[in-house]
Structure formats: C-alpha cells, structure tokens
Design a protein that fits this description.
Keywords: Signal. The protein is mainly beta. It has helices at residues 14-23, 114-117; strands spanning 42-54, 57-62, 68-72, 77-81, 87-92, 105-110, 119-125, 130-138, 141-152, 163-165, 171-175, 193-197, 213-215, 220-226, 232-237, 242-248, 259-260, 263-264, 274-277, 283-289, 292-297, 303-308, 314-320, 328-333, 339-343, 354-363. The protein has a single domain, classed as TolB, C-terminal domain (Neuraminidase, 6 Propeller). The strands form seven sheets. The chain has a four-stranded antiparallel β-sheet with strand order 1-26-25-24. It has a four-stranded antiparallel β-sheet with strand order 2-3-4-5, with no helix packed on it.
Length: 376
Amino acid sequence: MSFTRRHPSRTSSVLVAAATALALGAALPAADAAPAPEPGTPEPGKVTALTSGADVPWGLAFLPDGSGVYTERNTANVYRLTKSGQRTLLGKVPQSQATGGEGGLMGLEVSPTFATDHYLYFLHTSTEGNRIARMKLENDRLSGYTVLLRGMAKNRYHNGGRLRFGPDGKLYAGMGDAQNTSLAQDRTSLNGKILRINPDGSIPADNPFGNAVWSIGHRNPQGLDFDSQGRLWQAEFGNNVMDEVNLVHKGGNYGWPNCEGTNGSCAGYIAPKKTWPVSAGSPSGLTVVNDHVFVATTRGQRLYRMRIDAGSNLVDERTYFSGTYGRLRTPEVDRDGDIWLTTSADRDTTPGNDRVLLVDVVYSGTARPTGTAAPR
C-alpha cells in the first residue's frame, strides 16, 4: 500500500482554493501570514453531501472500484456509498453491541487483497468485550463472521476503535483503556494500546512484547494512518487538558496515565508531535495525504491540516470548517484525492441526522501528487 495520493488534473490556483474554502466557512489564515504552499499541497475546497440520514457513521474505507463503505456505530449497519450518492445496505455485523456511549460498531478496513479474498475487517463491542472480526463482502452482501482477536475490555467510553492496514501487510488497531487507567501501562493487557496482528488474527513474530501489543501508554487512541515513509501517525483523546497526535514507534510508551500530552510526569515517555486544548480537539479520525496529516475533531468541530516536515514535526497548521458541519468524525482520502468526511451528531439524541460529506481537494502548484493511490 502506498500513502501518497494521485489526483487527476485540477486547477493549481491557490487563490481559487482559498476563495472556495472561505465561502464554505473555512478558517483560513491571513494571506500575508501564509507562506506559499509547496507543490502538491492538498487544499480542501467545495463541500457537498453524498448522503444524509446516517446514524453516527464511524468507520469509512474504500473498495477497489472506488466506492466507499461505512459503518454505523449504534445500528451495526454497514453501507456501500458511491460518489454519485447511491447508498446500499450491505448487512449488519452480528454480535455488535452499542454501549450508550462510545462503543458499538467502530473501525472498518478493506483487505489489501480484497480482489481475491473479499474480506472486510471490523472492530466492534460485543457482550464480553471489544473484538476484531472479519466478514466477506460478495454481491453487495456481508456473509460469514470470524473473530480474529478477543480479550479487549469494553466500557461505555474509551473503546478506541480504529483499524488500518500498514505497508507491512499487518492490521493495526487503536484500543482505549476502558476507563481503567492502570491497563495502559500493563504490557499484558490489550487496553490502552496500539495493537498489531496478522490478517488472519495471529500474532506477528516481531511484535515487541510477544502479544498483540505494538505500543503502550494510550488513553483513547483513534485515528491511524501511515505517511509516505511508512510511519504510523495516531490521534488520541486526552482527559481534560490536552489531546494529541503521536508518531507511533514499535514498543513505544506514550505516558498515559502519568502524562497527558505534555502535562504531568512526562520524563521518559515519547512526547506527542501535536497537542490541542481538549476544547479545540477530540480528534477522532486521521488521514494522511501527500505527507499532510488531516485530523477531524468532534468537540472542536473542525478539520485540521498539518504538514510533516523533514524532522518529523507537524507544522503549518491550518483549520477548516470550524463549526460549519458540527461534530466531525472520520476523514478518508479516496482514489481521486478527495476527502470523504463523516459527521457525528450523537450528542443531540436525534438518530439518523448525520451526513457523509465529499470535500473536493485542490492540489497547489504545477506538480501533481505522485505515487499509487491504493483504495481502502
């Protein structure tokens, strides 16, 4: 899988992108304060709704034909959605159980070898805990159900939930601490961790602790994606001080519960690459395009964009759509280079009032993005 996106010909005018984004309520910096973007910089532009009437659309991924698939957290429904807005119910994930909070049917990934195996992967809450499972998708119907990983405690809150295949062919998952802070530093527990398994659910021989654990010391890790160098970036909900974006290392310790962002007893732990006050964050989803990290926030109700510089720092932060579309859950980049973005109006107690949005992305300069866009 490659993580630099290819995009068809588009206008290269940054002024056009800025005017379009401003008309949509994007919070853009003053022109005299913004450096000229590098060629290939992704600039969010026009926004349209692909579908409405969704109920907390949580996981989002793409099939080889370019259509999207998304999960609904509380209903356990799985839908296919085309770029023209045609929506098809594919079925339900059995044994998925909503928690009345943050649990239910969450993460979704498409097998890297979907053309031959037809597998979709899910992370969901069940009666006994959280699970990773897979099902087959054939002729627009889900069938079969195989549990790949159990043993993750559940709670009404802090269930993590994201899935992402890496360039190594392994499946990575974010798992929250289930509101038991002691689990995050316990290497034998699967909670408060980034997990890594083989596509069949077995444990890779090169995992650092002999189990599914890849990194420790996480509170409620969510958004996951890889950059062009194959490095894993992760978004994380803090407690009441700071939210984070982390660069995840094998066997790394990210400090929770002793350290929240840069607050607390943080010596000896890996520091985050970016923090925000929790009022501006709750970073649920993360995607990387042309080595720019996009983060969608629920409480912050905005989409962030940051560039990964040569020192692996996140710089040139921009903010889009502040308050325009409410709580934002999941951004994903399709094979055309556009961003699909789900809303998450789960705090208003009205079911079925969420949307999947299509954000047209304009790439600046004369150089188009390079590389191969792997549908996912």
